[in-house]
């Protein structure tokens, strides 16, 4: 191993230009560096990273989120790439965002994390490709379809390389189309952050709202079939299938290709793990993994590896940091003071969860005794949404959505729903939703019930604050008419009314009928 | 009444210079305009205000508070004064803040609202004059002590004017010294705002924390004695004593002198209503009402009128807007859509309340199984603090403060307290306090329990979030040592640790002992 040398203006290391140290590994695969097969590259990259200081992670948990778009800027992650001569990846990624996802809420510019605006989120059961959320862990590689090939190795009978053309040939591999909801384990994380700050991961645990979820019809081949047909099956000791993506991942000073794994038991369910090239009848967008990604139904989105170039059959779960050290679910006693890889459990299948999308949080709703509520509900790993209940009073009384007001059941997709809830009360109310899945699982009651240091899986009953103005009440109707007569509007709610709310004579009359203090 | 004329560059109205329209009413009383005795002035002022547009109230409830000091700027209220040619009041007020209260948290620059910094708040039972909170409703008048006189009229046997010299003459009026906690009904309002936005009053309902409370020893004469000795007593039909202050108050386009009232039943308790000129052995600071103020024990601070120049005995509560239209406590069904003067009740005596001052909200506390908690507890209207209880678990288990760890009882003052609470648990905990007063009254459980549109009297159990790091736990002690060995610090809490938290071999050993998934 070479001794640590100073970084020569960031352009070379130990006298060797960066471009030669970390070359693009295959022709036609721009932005892909192979790390896992090159331990010496990994060592050199770590040494380079050690010589540099990087911008600290921005503090956005103890302070309000910026009101900008992009909301957060991934300085540190950009600098990691730049330090290794990989700035072109950063540039190509953002250009891809602007081309493929211009209208998103850009939660983090790099690695790109984009959230679906609420108006697009529940428009239809299927999310349009340009509105589907994106949670990337590295830059977007730019891979030519013709140059693409998939390697399968590890504990299989016959390691192989398969071209995309072969994979797409239906005479070789049977194809499947599956309607799949993919959800980031960070969905609704903002609620955990607002309650208590947690882990400030170097990649940034993005402050997602309810829009880190989306549904698409994916076309591809079941991984099980590929393993059987192309590799002659897996060896008996193989228990996990590892997916390696062409993106570069960083963790505590070390460099990796993105790697995760899923159990063989999941893969053998055929359509539950697809190698997919099509999303809603179109080629995968680059930002979603073009030309090929894994689609693991009902699991945390992180397992559906993008830009998938290698699959390894393993006896144990992947040791890649995304699998071993990330996406762990900790008990509340565990935090910065004591978390380890081995004391969290791995988030794979997703629990039942839901969200109210309309009305929006803190919305003023003027109504006549009923408020329409709309949202999504989902349960992972083949469980479907059975019942959705909405409470207009913080969780005391619950109303169930009618089947007619819910989209149809799918094994691997959400249901959208709406309900008109009776509301007599005025002022600030807390509306909440809870969902029951096919196994009778339901959601934790409060955010604290399931708060965890890594801020994953905010599956507690989703709560929104609604300011109810019930104009079926005479006093309210009178005030609304008064506001209109003054050429004013009810909102902004906090804006004071400029005129006297009560005539002094009326006030005195009331006060003499019901004095402010006892008479004796 | 003159026809509305355009404002001549803001310097005159209807051809008359503003300085002649609204002259200072007495020699040696700078910044005092008499409005209540001059209905024609009030009408003219209203007309002038109608000709102008004023800066809207700043929105600070739906968005994060500025991190500035002053936190909020009272543009509108300054403009009201300027429109009437009273800008010198604005200037003198701020000069007085800088002289008398330089170190405060300036919540609102005009009318001045200043909060005591936490480090000064519970240093001692008596709050130093320079650290006592201030909630003014208008500018600070600048009154010469020698020119000062107090008028008493209304339903008394003999209306009088009394000079300050006479009032202070112990051979004429018996004096009293009373230890009094004065509390703004806005104390801890920030908790109500953070839960739900409420009324955006034109004066600004300041976003107070726990520091809108303070305790001082006031010297003065009981109002009861003055009424008896100077006025020969009140008439039988007199039920309320109205206090009028020399500051100018605005409400919905009209102009007033500050006016409030308290019941005769309160006044006749002798030391419970003082006319005070001394605060902690010193002359009243100008910002606290020099040369004379009312001190109404156990009532909302708003009744302790400053720059008190007139007292009227009335048959009914004052019709001044501060008494009739402000400081009302509304039911939760009442809000912008339907509040009136007559459907809220008047806040006079203050209920039992308390606050945790240390640890601070969101503080990380590294400890060995016990955490010290400190704060204040108070109950109004002659009730004293009997018992203080602290819960380290959101309100499930409560520990009582020892009498030795509380300051002594007073009829009209708070008690400061401290307690060491056993804490085994780690991570984010919710600590809360509740107090029981001498009538066995205690506090509502949650902010929502008593949330009200005008955001007054946040007397629910005060809750703070504490991140507990219990270093008596071996894994925690190990991590803290590791952090020290790396030359790092535990805080900021959200900063990721830069090194691997677990050796891969240790991880694998654990994972083989307790596999991530069942073996069959």
TrEMBL record, chains A, B:
A GO biological-process term: sulfur compound metabolic process
Domain Oxidoreductase molybdopterin-binding intervals: 137-320
InterPro entries attached to this UniProt entry: Ig_E-set (IPR014756), MoCF_OxRdtse_dimer (IPR005066), Mopterin_OxRdtase_euk (IPR008335), OxRdtase_Mopterin-bd_dom (IPR000572), OxRdtase_Mopterin-bd_sf (IPR036374)
Essential cofactor(s): Mo-molybdopterin
Gene3D superfamilies named in the record: 2.60.40.650, Oxidoreductase, molybdopterin-binding domain
One GO cellular component, as annotated: mitochondrion
Any one GO molecular-function label of the UniProt entry: molybdopterin cofactor binding
Keyword annotations: Metal-binding, Molybdenum, Oxidoreductase
Regions that span the bilayer: none
The Moybdenum cofactor oxidoreductase dimerisation domain, residue ranges: 346-467
Name of protein: Sulfite oxidase mitochondrial
Organism of this sequence: Dichomitus squalens
């Amino acid at each position: 191993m070479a001794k640590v040398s100073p970084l020569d203006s960031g352009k070379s290391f130990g006298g060797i230009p960066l471009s030669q140290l970390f070359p693009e590994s295959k022709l036609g695969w721009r932005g892909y560096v192979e790390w896992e097969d090159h331990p010496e590259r990994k060592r050199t990259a770590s040494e380079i990273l050690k010589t540099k200081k990087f911008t600290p992670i921005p503090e956005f948990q103890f302070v309000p989120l910026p009101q900008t778009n992009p909301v957060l800027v991934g300085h540190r992650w950009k600098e990691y790439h730049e330090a290794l001569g990989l700035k072109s990846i950063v540039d190509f990624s953002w250009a891809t965002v602007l081309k493929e996802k211009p209208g998103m809420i850009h939660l983090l510019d790099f690695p790109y994390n984009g959230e679906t605006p609420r108006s697009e989120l529940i428009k239809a059961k299927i999310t349009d490709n340009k509105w589907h959320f994106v949670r990337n862990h590295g830059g977007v590689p730019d891979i030519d379809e013709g140059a693409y090939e998939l390697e399968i190795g590890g504990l299989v009978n016959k390691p192989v390389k398969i071209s995309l053309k072969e994979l797409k040939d239906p005479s070789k591999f049977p194809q499947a189309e599956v309607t799949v909801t993919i959800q980031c384990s960070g969905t609704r994380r903002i609620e955990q952050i607002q309650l208590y700050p947690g882990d400030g991961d170097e990649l940034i645990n993005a402050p997602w709202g309810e829009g880190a979820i989306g549904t698409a019809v994916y076309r591809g081949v079941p991984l099980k079939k590929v393993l059987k047909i192309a590799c002659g099956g897996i060896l008996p000791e193989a228990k996990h299938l590892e997916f390696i993506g062409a993106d570069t991942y960083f963790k505590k000073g070390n460099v990796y290709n993105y790697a995760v794994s899923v159990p063989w038991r999941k893969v053998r369910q055929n359509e539950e793990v697809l190698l997919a090239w099509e999303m809603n009848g179109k080629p995968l967008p680059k930002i979603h993994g073009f030309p090929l990604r894994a689609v693991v139904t009902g699991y945390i989105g992180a397992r559906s590896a993008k830009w998938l170039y290698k699959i390894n059959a393993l006896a144990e779960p992947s040791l890649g940091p995304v699998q071993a050290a990330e996406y762990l679910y900790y008990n509340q006693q565990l935090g910065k003071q004591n978390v380890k890889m081995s004391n969290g459990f791995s988030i794979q299948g997703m629990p039942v969860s839901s969200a109210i999308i309309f009305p929006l949080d803190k919305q003023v709703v003027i109504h006549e005794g009923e408020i329409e509520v709309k949202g999504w509900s989902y349960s992972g790993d083949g469980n479907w949404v059975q019942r959705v209940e909405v409470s207009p009073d913080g969780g005391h009384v619950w109303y169930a959505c009618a089947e007619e007001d819910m989209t149809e059941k799918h094994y691997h997709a959400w249901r959208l729903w709406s309900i008109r809830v009776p509301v007599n009360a005025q002022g600030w109310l807390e509306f909440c939703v809870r969902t029951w899945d096919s196994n009778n699982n339901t959601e934790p009651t409060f955010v604290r019930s399931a708060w965890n240091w890594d801020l994953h899986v905010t599956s507690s009953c989703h709560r929104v604050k609604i300011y109810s103005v019930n104009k079926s009440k005479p006093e309210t109707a009178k005030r609304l008419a008064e506001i209109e007569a003054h050429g004013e509007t009810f909102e902004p709610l906090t804006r004071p009314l400029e005129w006297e709310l009560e005539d002094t004579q009326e006030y005195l009359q009331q006060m003499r009928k019901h004095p402010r203090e006892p008479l004796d």
